[in-house]
Amino acid sequence: MLTREEDIDVHALRKRGWTISAIARHLGRDRKTIRAYLSGREPGVRESAGSDPFERFEAYCAQRLTDDPHLWAATLFDELLELGYERSYPTLTRQLRDRGLRPACEPCRPAKDRAVAVIEHPPGEETQWDWVELPDPPAAWGWGKTAHLLVGALSHSGRWRGVLCESEEAPFLVDGLDRVTRALGGLTRDWRFDRMSTVVSPTSGKVSASFAAVAKHYGVTVKPCPPRRGNRKGVVEKANHIAAQRFWRTLPDDVTVEEAQRRLERWCATRGDIRLRATADGRATVQALAELEPLRPVPAPFPAILTVTRVVSAQALVAYAGNRYSVPPELHGHTVTVSVRLGATHLDIATLPAPGRGAAVPTVIARHRLAPAGAGASIRDEGHVTALTEAALAAFTTAGPHRRKQRRPPSPAARAEADNIRRQLTGDTSSSGEVDVVVDLTRYAAAAAGRNTLTPAPTQDTPKETNHQ
């Protein structure tokens, strides 16, 4: 088999008038090989010495894979063995690939392999939304193994913003929508989502009843993406990729949630908004295009209730959004819920319902003024401070720790308890605290009579009986 370079040399030397024998000696090849390549043999392809053993199975394999594009090659191999196939499994898979017998399944094809069209996005028409799951958040956040970033992008200009959230539940989604919309500068006519269950039904694509109220409040039209068509919202998908690689990948471990949020906003303003975009008049920055979009003002936040669980610290404080709020000191170490109505100026801290009570309403134990997120403030109630001080003073002691080898015999109270156990074992349950002693004189009389009736021992003067034969 000749390489492509050798094939080129063979044809070039032949055109110069060289004979086949001279070319074969020059390249160190057989004359029949040189003659075959001059006759049109393809370089780099080794011709089979015999007939094609797969040819009689090709039609069957093509039909089976047309009927079922996802049929395993191992299953097809089992069927071919029963039909007399004598080659190996790797040979079968190579033949399937080389002959292109497995057709592409259109519903399962990735988006990058499909033909796509350029979608026009007029200014102010559409905002695209998507969740990004970010692995391994800092342990101090207490969010577990995954953080969630809600990203919103203006389809026309490409401006995007994101909000870090503890969960993807509906209240966190509504809070993120409001915050990102205000960061983008206003509302567009349409909101485009993929088929997330908190917005639309994944199967039918219809808007859920709970999110319909949110859409009416902000005056937008909800448009779901077609199923398995991620490129329909390619603007926000690209923003997701940038957020994961240029923001999350380099985030240090010692930052708080609020600091991470500020870093993201700063990056979007200083890096993301200065990107150049192609326009009909040339090129313009994302910021310049976004400022020309006709966005509507954002109304007051939708009154959703955001609820999270927290553990009370030793100082009877509950952490929320970069601040701490006081509770009664007896709740130290307990789990409580923090509830905030979006747009409100206060938060409520409540205890968890007791298990086994069904849908019991949590008991609100504290209500505080809501401090700005990330301010690091400690909001304390005077009553909580007084109760905490009293509890700390009551538990205060100057006694030193106990020595391990110190002698500590049972106390009088412990001995009294031991006596009580002994009385219970003997069946005496009198309340006098002492065992009653009963004196019976008949026992003494019986003992004296027994001593007086004893048989006397024999004396030496008593004659002994003799036995005479």
From TrEMBL:
Location of the region described as Disordered in the Swiss-Prot/TrEMBL record: 396-469
Superkingdom, taxonomy of origin: Bacteria
Listed GO MF terms: nucleic acid binding
Domain Integrase catalytic: 119-293
Signal peptide: none
Family matches, as Gene3D superfamilies: Homeodomain-like, Ribonuclease H-like superfamily/Ribonuclease H
Compositional bias annotation for Polar residues: 452-461
Entries under InterPro entries matching the protein: Integrase_cat-core, IstA-like_C, RNaseH-like_sf, RNaseH_sf
Annotated GO biological process: DNA integration
Pfam families: Mu-transpos_C_2 (PF22483)
SUPFAM superfamilies assigned to the protein according to its UniProt record, in alphabetical order: Ribonuclease H-like (SSF53098)
Family: Belongs to the transposase IS21/IS408/IS1162 family.
NCBIfam families, A to Z: transpos_IS21
Identification of the protein by name: Integrase catalytic region
